[in-house]
Design a protein that fits this description.
The chain has 457 residues and is mostly helical. 70% of the residues lie in helices and 0% in strands. It is built from 22 helices and no strands.
Length: 457
C-alpha cells in the first residue's frame, strides 16, 4: 500500500515528457498550482457523480462543468509556456473526434433499443416470464442468464432495467428475493457486456481505438461466464424454491414491425462490423446507415397504418426514439472524455501510466483497473487507459477490457446498472445489501482473470 501511495503521489511531482496519443505533446505542468487545481476540480465533480443517488443531481452536469473549467486552465497553461493556438486546438480536437465517433455509435444503438421497446419487444418478454410462474430459484437463474446475453447486444444499463422490472414484479412481496435478484442482475449485466463490442462502452472504446478486432472480444466469453456463474451459484443458495403468488398478468402482443426492427438491428450491427473490417472506416458509419434504414422503415410503418388514425400502431416517430435516448449518459460521456483529455494534455495521464504500468507492471495494473472501476466508474477509467498510449499486446487489452467491465460489479455504485437498479427498487436493493455479496463477486472476478490466463494467455 505504501508503494502504491508513493506511485500515485508522483502525479504531483514527477517531470513530464510527451503525450502518446497521435504524437501530440502534452504540457508537462503537473507540478504547477494551476495543474493541481484541475485535478481537484475533477475530484469534486466526480464526488457529485458518486453521490447522484442521494442528491438527485444527474451525473452529466458536474462533469460537463469540470471539463470546461479544466480545458480553460489547460489553455492558460499552454499560453504561459508558449504553445501555439494551433497545437492547443489539435489536442482539443483529438478529444472531439473521439467523442463524436462514440456518441453517434451509441445514439443509434439507443434509438434501436427505444424502437424495440416501443414495439413491445421487451414488454412481451417480461410478460411471458411472469405468466410462466417459475419458482424463485428458477427465476433467479432465468433472469440472470437472459440479462447476461441481452447485455451483449444492448448495454448493461438497459438490460438490467428491463429484466429488473420482472424481478420487481414477481418479488414484490419478497424483499429478500429482490435484493439478491438485483445483485445477480448487476453481475450478469456487467459480465455479459465484457465479451461483446456492443455490450459496454468500455469494450466499444477498445474496439473503435483499434486495439482489438470485433471477433477478438469473443475470446472473453468463457472468462465472462465464470465471472457471472461463480457469484451467482453462491447467491442462489440464499434463494428459496417457493412459488411466487399467482400472476394475473395478461399476455402482451407485439406491435406491427417489432420483429422486422429486431432484424434491422442485427443487420445494423453487421453493417458496423463491415464498415470497420472491410472498408476500414469508423463503425459509426455502419450504424448511421442502419439508422437511415430504420427511418425509412418507420415511414413505411406509418404509411401502412395511415388508414387507422386511432390505432397506436400507426404512431412510429423515429425522432421520438432519438429524443428518448439516454442523453444523460451521452452528456456524461462528453464530460468524461474532455475532463480526462484535459488532464492528459496537462500531463497527468502519462504520470498515471508511469505509476501504474511502469511501476506495477501491466498485469497488476490491469487488475487494479477493475478495482478502480468499482469506485470511480469504468468509463473514465478506460478512457484514461486508452489515452495513455500503452504498448500492450492483445492478451493485455482483453484483460483490461474484462477487468474494467466486470470490476464495477463489486459495489452497487460501481456501474450504471447498479445505480439504476438502486433507484428503481423501492429501497429493496441498497448499497449494503450488495456489499454483503462483494466477497463472492470478488472471487468470481479473480477466477475470471485466472481463466482468461488459461484460455487466452
Amino acid at each position: 500500500m505504501l508503494r502504491l501511495f508513493i506511485l500515485f503521489a508522483a502525479l504531483f511531482s514527477m517531470p513530464q515528457l510527451a503525450l502518446a496519443n497521435e504524437g501530440i505533446a502534452n504540457l508537462g505542468l503537473t507540478g504547477t498550482e494551476r495543474g493541481i487545481y484541475t485535478v481537484l476540480i475533477f475530484i469534486i465533480a466526480y464526488g457529485f457523480v458518486m453521490a447522484e443517488e442521494f442528491t438527485g443531481l444527474r451525473k452529466s452536469k458536474p462533469v460537463i462543468i469540470a471539463a470546461a473549467i479544466i480545458w480553460a486552465h489547460a489553455a492558460v497553461l499552454a499560453a504561459e509556456v508558449g504553445v501555439s493556438t494551433a497545437d492547443l486546438h489539435e489536442a482539443f480536437e483529438f478529444n472531439l473526434k473521439e467523442y463524436a465517433a462514440l456518441m453517434l455509435f451509441l445514439l443509434v444503438a439507443m434509438t434501436y433499443i427505444n424502437a424495440m421497446a416501443e414495439r413491445n419487444v421487451f414488454e412481451a418478454l417480461r410478460s411471458w416470464m411472469i405468466r410462466k410462474e417459475f419458482n424463485y430459484k428458477q427465476l433467479f437463474w432465468i433472469t440472470g442468464v437472459i440479462t447476461f446475453f441481452l447485455s451483449a447486444i444492448a448495454d448493461n444499463l438497459t438490460s438490467a432495467l428491463l429484466v429488473g422490472a420482472v424481478v420487481l414484479a414477481v418479488g414484490k412481496d419478497n424483499e429478500k428475493f429482490v435484493a439478491v435478484g438485483f445483485v445477480n442482475l448487476v453481475v450478469a449485466a456487467n459480465a455479459g457486456g465484457a465479451f461483446s463490442p456492443f455490450g459496454d462502452i468500455t469494450t466499444l472504446m477498445v474496439w473503435q481505438a483499434g486495439y482489438a478486432e470485433f471477433f477478438d472480444f469473443f475470446a472473453l466469453f468463457i472468462p465472462s461466464v465464470v465471472n457471472y456463474v461463480i457469484p451467482a451459484f453462491f447467491m442462489s443458495l440464499a434463494v428459496s424454491n417457493e412459488q411466487p403468488p399467482k400472476s394475473t398478468e395478461a399476455a402482451v402482443d407485439l406491435k406491427p414491425g417489432a420483429i422486422q426492427i429486431c432484424v434491422l438491428f442485427v443487420l445494423t450491427i453487421a453493417a458496423a462490423v463491415s464498415f470497420k473490417q472491410v472498408f476500414h472506416l469508423p463503425p459509426f458509419m455502419g450504424m448511421m446507415l442502419g439508422l437511415g434504414v430504420l427511418m425509412v422503415y418507420g415511414f413505411r410503418l406509418n404509411t401502412l397504418y395511415r388508414a387507422e388514425p386511432a390505432s397506436e400502431h400507426s404512431e412510429f416517430d423515429i425522432f421520438n426514439k432519438v429524443r428518448d435516448a439516454e442523453w444523460d449518459t451521452l452528456f456524461f460521456f462528453f464530460g468524461v472524455v474532455f475532463a480526462v483529455g484535459g488532464l492528459g494534455y496537462i500531463g497527468y495521464l502519462e504520470l498515471l501510466s508511469a505509476a501504474m504500468y511502469d511501476g506495477l507492471g501491466q498485469t497488476p495494473a490491469n487488475i487494479l483497473v477493475g478495482f478502480m472501476s468499482a469506485i470511480v466508474d469504468n468509463i473514465p477509467v478506460m478512457f484514461a487507459v486508452l489515452s495513455m498510449g500503452l504498448d500492450m499486446d492483445l492478451y493485455q487489452w482483453l484483460l483490461v477490457t474484462l477487468t474494467a467491465g466486470t470490476g464495477g460489479s463489486m459495489l452497487s455504485v460501481g456501474s450504471a446498472a447498479g445505480v439504476a437498479l438502486m433507484g428503481s427498487s423501492n429501497h429493496k436493493y441498497t448499497f449494503f445489501s450488495h456489499l454483503k455479496w462483494t466477497p463472492v463477486i470478488a472471487l468470481g472476478y479473480a477466477a475470471s482473470i485466472f481463466v482468461h490466463y488459461l484460455v487466452n494467455g
